[in-house]
Amino acid sequence: VTLGVVLPLEGAPVLASFSELVLEGVEVAAVTQTAPYLDIHLEVRDDGGDVGRTANVVSELEGSGAAGMIGFLEEVSLNAAAGARAGSVPLVSPTARAPGIAADGVYSLEGVDSVGIHALARQAASRGYQRVAFIESTSALSAEEADLFERELLGFGIPTVGRFAYAEGAT
């Protein structure tokens, strides 16, 4: 399974630094997945924080068969990515607020979105995930969303094996 990782690795210094942390988290998740039939390959692309480049990278990754993509740290990047898809390959942003995006398969981990959380848990179940670990901030909003995600996962029979917190504002 190929997952695209689209981040501004060479963009603005603050975003580039945060992108490195996000990339490390994605790499840890890919390495620690335990389903023996799932071989995850990460295709990492730098969009430099440029929405035109984001759109091109998303089209390329979708065309090469990526099963999903993660990154898109800003709302404009997530919007560009959603608009660039020919199909409905799942897109996940850990940070972009996405109130204006109403597209299938577009998820933001910023703010509590119970519909998106349920859909993400359903996606994990449909892909055969046996257990999940995730990273969250220590903010009340993040904890509320993480609690909801954990409950949704359990509804599909998927236990959470780790929740790792970072200090609010550390990014």
Written description of the protein model:
- With 171 residues, this protein is of the alpha/beta class.
- It has five helices and seven strands; from the N terminus they run βαβαβαββαβαβ.
- α3 links the parallel β3 and β4.
- The model has no long low-confidence stretch (mean pLDDT 88).
Task: Fill in the keyword field for this structure.
171 residues; 7 strands; globular
Terminal-residue CA separation: 29 Å
| Strand tally | 7
H/E element string?
EHEHEHEEHEHE
Overall, the morphology is: globular
Q: What is the CA-atom radius of gyration, in angstroms?
A: 15 Å
Strand order of the largest sheet: 2-1-3-4-5
Strand-residue fraction?
15-25%
Q: State the share of residues found in helices, binned by percent.
A: 40-55%
Overall pLDDT confidence: 88
Low-confidence stretches at least 5 residues in length (pLDDT < 50)? none
Specify the structural class: alpha/beta
Largest sheet, in brief, is:
5 strands, parallel
Number of helices: 5
Task: Walk me through the topology.
Elements: E1 2-7, H1 13-32, E2 41-46, H2 51-63, E3 68-71, H3 75-84, E4 91-93, E5 106-108, H4 114-126, E6 132-137, H5 140-155, E7 160-166
Parallel strand pairs: 1-2, 1-3, 3-4, 4-5, 6-7
Helix pairs in contact: 2-3, 4-5
